[in-house]
Amino acid sequence: MLKPQSSATRELLNLDGLWRFAVENDETAGSWTARVESGLEAPVPASYNDLFTDPAIRDHVGWVRYQREVRVPRGWAGERVFVRVDAATHEGRVYVGDVLVAEHVGGYTPFEADITELVTAGEVLRLTIAVNNVLTNETIPPGSIEVTADGRRQQRYLHDFYNYAGLARSVWLYSAPALRVGDVTITTDVDGSTGLIGFDVSTTEAGQVRVSVRDTTGRVVGQADGAQGTLRVEDVTLWQPGAAYLYDFTIETLDDAGAVTDEYVLPVGVRTVEVRGMQFLINGAPFYFTGFGKHEDTAVRGKGHDNAYLVHDFQLLDWIGANSFRTSHYPYAEEVMEFADRHGIVVIDETAAVGLNLAMAGGIFGGVVKPTFSPETINDRTQAVHAQAIRELVARDKNHPSVVMWSIANEPGSSEAGAREYFEPLAALTRELDPTRPVAFVNVMFATFETDLISDLFDVMCLNRYYGWYADTGDLASAEVHLETELRGWQEKYGKPIIMTEYGADTQPGLHSIFDQPWTEEYQSAYLEMNHRVFDRIEAFVGEQVWNFADFQTSVGIFRVDGNKKGVFTRDRKPKAAAHALRARWTTLGK
Question: Which of 237, 275, 421, 483 gets the most CB atoms within 10 Å of its CB?
Answer without folding.
Answer: 483
